[in-house]
Design brief:
By secondary structure, this protein is α+β, with helices and mostly antiparallel strands. The chain has helices at about 25-40, 65-85, and strands at about 1-5, 10-15, 50-55, 85, 95. The chain contains 2 helices and 5 strands, in the order E-E-H-E-H-E-E. Helix 1 packs across helix 2. The longest helix is centred in the last third of the chain and has 21 residues, at about 65-85. The radius of gyration is 14 Å and the shape is elongated.
């Protein structure tokens, strides 16, 4: 999961999942629905950033509970990091 600040005043999200991560379209769509629902539930509490979720190979073998737990942990981690500044690509913090 990646995050970059935006100036829109609200959070946005994008999901990337390729055939290497989940061979069947049903699995890819399931992952996208799960991520979108988790984002929808947390959107108001997230910082004004653009979030990008990139699925890694093997995600299709996870069940919904495991994916939701990973997402919840990732949101919390990003929120903590957001309070300190967002990590840039070069590894320094932007404030």
């Amino acid at each position: 999961m990646l995050a970059r600040p935006n100036e829109l005043g609200h959070a946005r999200m994008g999901v990337i999942i390729g055939k290497r991560s989940a061979k069947l379209a049903v699995q890819r769509n399931w992952f996208k629905r799960t991520v979108r629902e988790a984002f929808r539930l947390r959107r108001e509490s997230l910082a004004s950033c653009d979030y990008l979720i990139i699925a890694k190979p093997g995600i299709a073998k996870q069940n919904r509970v495991q994916v939701r737990q990973w997402l919840d942990q990732s949101w919390q981690k990003l929120q903590r990091r957001g309070a300190l500044g967002v990590q840039s690509a070069s590894g320094t913090q932007d404030k």
